[in-house]
Description:
By secondary structure, the chain is of the alpha/beta class. The protein has three domains: about 15-70; about 85-225 and about 390-535 and about 570-605, P-loop containing nucleotide triphosphate hydrolases (Rossmann fold, 3-Layer(aba) Sandwich), CATH 3.40.50; about 235-385, no CATH class. Helices cover about 45% and strands about 15% of the residues. The longest helix is centred in the first third of the chain and has 29 residues, at about 40-70. The radius of gyration is 35 Å and the shape is elongated. The two termini are about 70 Å apart.
Amino acid sequence: MDNNYEMLWRPTFEAHAAFAWLGGSIASGAIVFTADLPLGPFYYMGGFALLMSIVRGSKAVVHWRTKRSLKGYELYFMEAKRFVKLTSKDMSKVWFGRGFDWKQTHAQRMYEISKRDIKELSFNEKRKEMGAPWIHGVEPNEKNVFVPNKHLEGHTIIFGTTGAGKTRAFDLLITQAVLRGEPVVIIDPKGDKDLRRTAQRACHLAGRPEAFVHFHPAFKRFSYCIDPCHNWNRSTEIPSRLATLIPSETGMDPFVSFSWMVLNHIANGLIMVEERPTLVNLRRYVEGGPESLLIRTLKAHFNLVHPSWTADIELLMKRFKGERGPSNEVKALMEFYLQFIEKENPSDAVSGLMSMYNHERDHFSKMVASLMPLLNMLTSGDLRDLLSPDMEAKEQTNPITDSMRMINENQVVYLGLDSLSDGTVGSAIGSIILADLTAVAGERYNNDKNGRVNIFIDEAAEVVNDPMIQMMNKGRGAGFQLTVATQSFPDFVARMGNEDKARKVLANANNLVSLRIKDGTTQEFVTETFGKTIVRQIMQTQNTNAISGDRDPTNWTGGYGERLIETEMDLFPADLLSSLPNLEYIASVSGGRIIKGRFPILTSDINPSPEDMPWVKSYLHD
């Protein structure tokens, strides 16, 4: 910290001195040419005065330029090809726009400005953009800001109110990730067309237009199908993936546990009959009951352990055939299993489905009351085909992908959830895909696969869930790097149900970027992250003292003094976060480096649409 006290926002006294020295130089020159006097002293005096005028004038220019910088900067645009050229020089670094490192010096300048009329200091120039431009102007010398890519592995959270610049920030970070050839998954609850164009344009700039994957429930014709139940190592992963989406205060209440058990029984049965578990299949057997699946499972188990079962079961079949009821076959099969198979060759899948089949139906319906709406949301309408594609169907025209394929093939996946049209369903889609990605992260971690996987989540409060928190907490070892954007901290609290769980999200983000934010709680959290600093101020004192009862008017004393005092304050004042202009940010990265910067708006003549995807062109042509 500099020990000199700096007063930049005073009048430019150096200019007065410069003009005075210049006047002295001119006067010396005039005497040389007009007066009949010895010339030597005037030459020396004129030269010295001119030199001092230059010295003081240069300092005046620096001081004036520093004050002039308080008018700030206009929004700036950058052509995409120039951006590619700039960021491709060193792929080990991420470009964060233009700016400077925010230090104690800038906090001191900010404090001094707060004591003055900013309109006078910033020349009272009119601006169309909102916000306080002088915040960035406290430093007249900005430069390109680069952050080592490795420092962003600890995840990044971006706060910003509507229109502050979150999409433009994503534009820069997504494009650079695509240019590095890394897999990118973008989860966008709103279905922002600008964000979709960003991802598709980045693929064109990288020379990989075929890598772009588009998913949007409102545009089935141009959408990939994504199976969130495709990737698993253990059958228990499938029920866990869905159970985490069931609303619960603790995540371990009886309804969630019962739903998990039901899904596990069905998944085990489907696997036993060699049928791929999908959301549609799970819903079918939860809603309609497990009878048909139980029959198939029993027969599959009998074929495996007792090939001659068809002949041995005839007597039981005849006995149950005479009884009333539509379930004679399943009763005979279960009886045969209990009498002749279970003791020597038990099956967890069969036993689980039998328990589910024999469960009292009314109680069963009550226990899965929270699971049913979730499955219904994820399998209704076009989502039936988009999230549960039939890989063997001849009429399947839309291409299919899954989380593992996204990563292995370095795809750039844009997932528009259409939450504006249907927020409940959009949130459920985002949550199930995040749960699937978390399971894939676990598989990669177990198999020591460490390639970088970039996950970008806009309006993260719409989809945040326990799997996402687990991914942030443990996904770094699997190469997963999350960048999440939201408007305020209370959004997470409202979604997670309590502040402690919401803080888990923030605690797992090592890097923080704050655009303009209005919420006071979020402002306090951000400034806490930036830490404190020391600012100096001059305290002036004066006093007089006269002896009581003494009538001598000269018998008194007085004094005047100045002293430099230090005060602790926020490195960046919280109230100024609400005054940041559009696209300007203050960030904490790299374990404590504070950056004040501004993002550009990328421009390009490349403006692709979903119809421009290679598979869509081929499909429409056919």
